[in-house]
Amino acid sequence: MQEKVIVFDVWAPFAYFRKGFTTTTAITFPFIPRSAVEGLIGAILGLDSDEYSERLNDARIAVGIVNKISKMPFAMMHTHVDAWKPPSKNIKLENFRARVKVEFLHDPKFRIYFNHDLDTQNDLKNKLLGHETVFTPYLGTSSMIANFEYLGEYLCSQIPKAVVPISSIIPFIDRMPEISLEDGAVYAIEQNIPAHIKADRTVTRTYSAIYSPYGTKIKASGLEAHALNRGTGYENVVFIPT
Question: In whole angstroms, how far apart are CA 142 and each of 15, 146, 175?
Protein backbone atom coordinates (compact mmCIF):
# COMPACT_ATOMS: atom_id res chain seq x y z
CA MET A 1 0.00 0.00 0.00
CA GLN A 2 1.36 3.41 -0.97
CA GLU A 3 0.95 6.55 1.12
CA LYS A 4 2.17 10.12 0.81
CA VAL A 5 5.03 11.39 2.95
CA ILE A 6 5.97 15.04 3.41
CA VAL A 7 9.72 15.69 3.43
CA PHE A 8 11.35 18.87 4.72
CA ASP A 9 14.69 19.99 6.15
CA VAL A 10 15.12 21.96 9.37
CA TRP A 11 18.26 23.58 10.72
CA ALA A 12 19.64 26.20 13.11
CA PRO A 13 23.04 27.55 14.22
CA PHE A 14 22.66 25.59 17.46
CA ALA A 15 20.35 22.97 18.95
CA TYR A 16 19.91 21.51 22.40
CA PHE A 17 17.86 18.39 23.15
CA ARG A 18 18.70 17.78 26.79
CA LYS A 19 18.99 14.25 28.08
CA GLY A 20 16.54 14.22 30.96
CA PHE A 21 18.64 11.93 33.12
CA THR A 22 21.65 14.29 33.19
CA THR A 23 22.31 16.40 36.30
CA THR A 24 25.49 18.41 36.85
CA THR A 25 26.47 18.09 33.19
CA ALA A 26 23.63 18.90 30.78
CA ILE A 27 24.35 16.97 27.59
CA THR A 28 22.26 16.75 24.42
CA PHE A 29 20.97 13.98 22.23
CA PRO A 30 22.93 13.95 18.94
CA PHE A 31 19.80 14.38 16.81
CA ILE A 32 16.26 15.64 17.19
CA PRO A 33 14.05 13.17 19.14
CA ARG A 34 10.61 12.24 17.88
CA SER A 35 9.00 14.18 20.75
CA ALA A 36 10.79 17.35 19.60
CA VAL A 37 9.65 16.77 16.00
CA GLU A 38 6.07 16.66 17.26
CA GLY A 39 6.65 19.99 19.02
CA LEU A 40 8.26 21.49 15.92
CA ILE A 41 5.37 20.48 13.66
CA GLY A 42 2.94 21.63 16.35
CA ALA A 43 4.58 25.09 16.30
CA ILE A 44 4.32 25.30 12.51
CA LEU A 45 0.66 24.29 12.59
CA GLY A 46 -0.19 26.46 15.61
CA LEU A 47 -1.09 23.63 17.99
CA ASP A 48 -0.88 24.22 21.73
CA SER A 49 1.28 21.85 23.83
CA ASP A 50 -1.74 19.97 25.14
CA GLU A 51 -3.10 19.70 21.59
CA TYR A 52 -0.14 18.54 19.48
CA SER A 53 0.86 15.86 22.00
CA GLU A 54 -2.53 14.25 21.46
CA ARG A 55 -3.07 15.00 17.76
CA LEU A 56 0.39 13.89 16.58
CA ASN A 57 0.69 10.90 18.88
CA ASP A 58 0.17 8.35 16.09
CA ALA A 59 1.85 10.30 13.27
CA ARG A 60 4.51 8.46 11.27
CA ILE A 61 7.83 10.25 11.64
CA ALA A 62 11.35 9.43 10.45
CA VAL A 63 14.47 11.55 10.99
CA GLY A 64 17.54 11.84 8.77
CA ILE A 65 20.85 13.51 9.59
CA VAL A 66 21.94 15.96 6.86
CA ASN A 67 24.93 17.74 8.42
CA LYS A 68 27.72 15.97 10.27
CA ILE A 69 26.95 15.92 13.99
CA SER A 70 29.15 18.40 15.83
CA LYS A 71 28.92 19.03 19.58
CA MET A 72 30.24 22.09 21.42
CA PRO A 73 30.69 22.24 25.21
CA PHE A 74 29.95 25.43 27.15
CA ALA A 75 30.21 26.43 30.79
CA MET A 76 27.33 28.40 32.27
CA MET A 77 26.65 29.86 35.69
CA HIS A 78 23.48 28.39 37.19
CA THR A 79 21.63 30.19 39.98
CA HIS A 80 19.38 28.03 42.16
CA VAL A 81 15.78 29.18 42.60
CA ASP A 82 16.27 29.46 46.37
CA ALA A 83 18.56 32.43 45.72
CA TRP A 84 15.50 34.57 44.97
CA LYS A 85 13.83 33.92 48.34
CA PRO A 86 13.83 36.64 51.05
CA PRO A 87 17.45 37.33 52.04
CA SER A 88 19.02 36.04 55.22
CA LYS A 89 22.13 37.45 56.86
CA ASN A 90 23.53 33.92 57.18
CA ILE A 91 23.14 33.04 53.49
CA LYS A 92 25.27 34.47 50.71
CA LEU A 93 24.15 34.59 47.08
CA GLU A 94 27.30 32.80 45.86
CA ASN A 95 26.23 29.72 47.83
CA PHE A 96 23.41 29.24 45.33
CA ARG A 97 25.56 29.53 42.22
CA ALA A 98 27.44 26.78 40.47
CA ARG A 99 29.26 26.39 37.18
CA VAL A 100 27.40 23.93 34.93
CA LYS A 101 28.69 22.30 31.76
CA VAL A 102 26.27 22.39 28.83
CA GLU A 103 26.61 20.67 25.47
CA PHE A 104 25.08 22.10 22.28
CA LEU A 105 24.81 20.80 18.73
CA HIS A 106 26.59 23.11 16.29
CA ASP A 107 25.14 23.77 12.84
CA PRO A 108 22.66 20.86 12.96
CA LYS A 109 20.44 20.02 10.00
CA PHE A 110 17.86 17.25 9.95
CA ARG A 111 15.51 15.80 7.34
CA ILE A 112 11.98 15.11 8.56
CA TYR A 113 9.68 12.54 6.95
CA PHE A 114 6.06 12.94 8.04
CA ASN A 115 2.83 11.05 7.36
CA HIS A 116 -0.54 11.56 9.05
CA ASP A 117 -4.20 12.14 8.24
CA LEU A 118 -5.10 14.10 5.10
CA ASP A 119 -6.16 17.30 6.89
CA THR A 120 -2.97 17.49 8.95
CA GLN A 121 -0.78 16.72 5.93
CA ASN A 122 -2.45 19.36 3.76
CA ASP A 123 -2.22 21.95 6.53
CA LEU A 124 1.48 21.23 7.08
CA LYS A 125 2.19 21.16 3.35
CA ASN A 126 0.60 24.58 2.82
CA LYS A 127 2.51 26.07 5.75
CA LEU A 128 5.83 24.68 4.50
CA LEU A 129 5.19 25.78 0.91
CA GLY A 130 4.47 29.33 2.05
CA HIS A 131 7.32 29.23 4.57
CA GLU A 132 4.81 30.21 7.24
CA THR A 133 4.42 29.24 10.88
CA VAL A 134 1.93 30.11 13.58
CA PHE A 135 4.41 29.84 16.44
CA THR A 136 8.17 30.30 16.21
CA PRO A 137 9.92 26.97 15.44
CA TYR A 138 13.09 26.18 17.35
CA LEU A 139 15.42 23.26 18.00
CA GLY A 140 15.27 22.40 21.67
CA THR A 141 15.18 25.82 23.32
CA SER A 142 13.39 29.02 22.34
CA SER A 143 16.65 30.90 21.71
CA MET A 144 17.65 28.44 18.98
CA ILE A 145 15.23 29.56 16.27
CA ALA A 146 15.05 27.17 13.32
CA ASN A 147 14.72 27.63 9.59
CA PHE A 148 13.17 25.05 7.28
CA GLU A 149 12.75 24.13 3.62
CA TYR A 150 9.95 22.11 2.03
CA LEU A 151 11.34 19.39 -0.24
CA GLY A 152 8.12 17.79 -1.44
CA GLU A 153 5.43 15.18 -0.91
CA TYR A 154 6.24 11.72 -2.24
CA LEU A 155 4.62 8.30 -2.51
CA CYS A 156 6.03 5.84 -0.03
CA SER A 157 5.66 2.06 0.20
CA GLN A 158 6.96 -0.68 2.44
CA ILE A 159 9.86 -2.73 1.07
CA PRO A 160 10.97 -6.35 1.69
CA LYS A 161 13.05 -7.07 4.79
CA ALA A 162 16.30 -7.49 2.85
CA VAL A 163 19.62 -5.68 3.21
CA VAL A 164 18.93 -2.09 2.16
CA PRO A 165 20.70 1.25 2.71
CA ILE A 166 18.76 3.34 5.22
CA SER A 167 18.77 7.13 4.89
CA SER A 168 17.23 7.83 8.30
CA ILE A 169 18.27 6.95 11.80
CA ILE A 170 17.33 3.33 12.56
CA PRO A 171 15.06 3.26 15.63
CA PHE A 172 14.34 0.12 17.64
CA ILE A 173 12.72 -0.86 20.93
CA ASP A 174 14.13 -4.18 22.10
CA ARG A 175 16.28 -6.11 19.67
CA MET A 176 18.94 -4.20 17.77
CA PRO A 177 18.63 -4.54 13.97
CA GLU A 178 21.27 -6.36 11.95
CA ILE A 179 23.81 -3.94 10.49
CA SER A 180 26.13 -4.69 7.57
CA LEU A 181 29.54 -3.37 8.67
CA GLU A 182 31.58 -1.59 6.03
CA ASP A 183 35.19 -0.45 6.00
CA GLY A 184 35.57 3.17 7.03
CA ALA A 185 31.96 3.52 8.15
CA VAL A 186 31.17 5.02 11.56
CA TYR A 187 28.13 3.93 13.55
CA ALA A 188 26.78 4.92 16.95
CA ILE A 189 23.89 3.93 19.22
CA GLU A 190 21.72 6.24 21.30
CA GLN A 191 19.37 5.00 24.03
CA ASN A 192 16.43 6.29 26.09
CA ILE A 193 15.29 8.80 23.47
CA PRO A 194 11.84 10.26 24.25
CA ALA A 195 9.32 9.21 21.64
CA HIS A 196 6.31 11.02 23.03
CA ILE A 197 5.76 13.54 25.82
CA LYS A 198 2.27 14.18 27.18
CA ALA A 199 0.86 17.62 27.90
CA ASP A 200 1.89 17.28 31.57
CA ARG A 201 5.52 16.77 30.36
CA THR A 202 5.70 13.09 31.30
CA VAL A 203 7.51 10.79 28.87
CA THR A 204 5.23 7.93 27.86
CA ARG A 205 7.79 5.84 25.98
CA THR A 206 11.37 5.82 24.76
CA TYR A 207 13.33 4.17 21.95
CA SER A 208 16.90 3.49 20.90
CA ALA A 209 18.50 4.23 17.54
CA ILE A 210 21.49 3.38 15.38
CA TYR A 211 22.82 6.31 13.37
CA SER A 212 25.79 7.62 11.46
CA PRO A 213 27.27 10.84 12.93
CA TYR A 214 28.23 11.78 9.36
CA GLY A 215 24.72 11.31 7.99
CA THR A 216 25.76 8.50 5.66
CA LYS A 217 23.45 5.62 4.79
CA ILE A 218 23.56 2.45 6.91
CA LYS A 219 22.93 -0.96 5.38
CA ALA A 220 20.57 -3.00 7.55
CA SER A 221 18.21 -5.97 7.27
CA GLY A 222 15.09 -7.30 8.95
CA LEU A 223 13.53 -3.86 9.21
CA GLU A 224 10.09 -2.50 8.45
CA ALA A 225 11.54 0.06 6.05
CA HIS A 226 9.74 2.27 3.55
CA ALA A 227 11.03 3.58 0.22
CA LEU A 228 10.21 6.87 -1.45
CA ASN A 229 11.47 8.22 -4.75
CA ARG A 230 12.37 11.91 -4.67
CA GLY A 231 13.42 11.93 -8.32
CA THR A 232 17.11 11.59 -7.50
CA GLY A 233 16.86 7.96 -6.42
CA TYR A 234 15.14 6.05 -3.67
CA GLU A 235 15.44 6.96 -0.01
CA ASN A 236 14.71 4.18 2.46
CA VAL A 237 13.56 5.26 5.89
CA VAL A 238 12.41 3.65 9.12
CA PHE A 239 9.60 5.34 11.00
CA ILE A 240 10.07 5.83 14.73
CA PRO A 241 7.78 3.57 16.83
CA THR A 242 4.67 5.27 18.18
Answer: 10, 9, 35
